[in-house]
Amino acid sequence: MSGEQKAKAKGEQAKGKLKETAGRLTGDERMAAEGRAEQARGDAREAKEKGKDAFRH
């Protein structure tokens, strides 16, 4: 996994988790949903890069 893509994936996951938590604490379901979506994008990016790495080795 390239370092840049790995960092982006981790960043999206962390940002999404914070947004989801903030949304839950404030009762803002829309913000919580956006956070979950960001986490999913980060998870997908990470899985894609791991798949690329598997074929390289």
Taking the alpha carbons of the first and last residues, their distance comes to 11 Å
Please tell me what the overall shape is.
Answer: elongated
User: What is Rg?
Assistant: 13 Å
Give the averaged pLDDT, no decimals: 92
Major sheet details: none
Structural class: mainly alpha
Share of helix, binned: over 70%
Beta strand %:
under 5%
Beta strand count: 0
What are the secondary-structure elements, in order, as H or E? HH
Number of helices: 2
* Unreliable parts: none
Based on the model shown, name its key terms.
0% strand, 57 residues
Written account of the structure:
The chain is mostly helical. The chain contains two helices and no strands. It has helices at 3-26, 29-56. Helix 1 runs antiparallel to helix 2. The longest helix has 28 residues, at 29-56.
Kindly summarize this structure in a few lines.
The protein has 57 residues and is an all-alpha fold. It contains two helices and no strands.
Element layout with pairings:
Elements: H1 3-26, H2 29-56
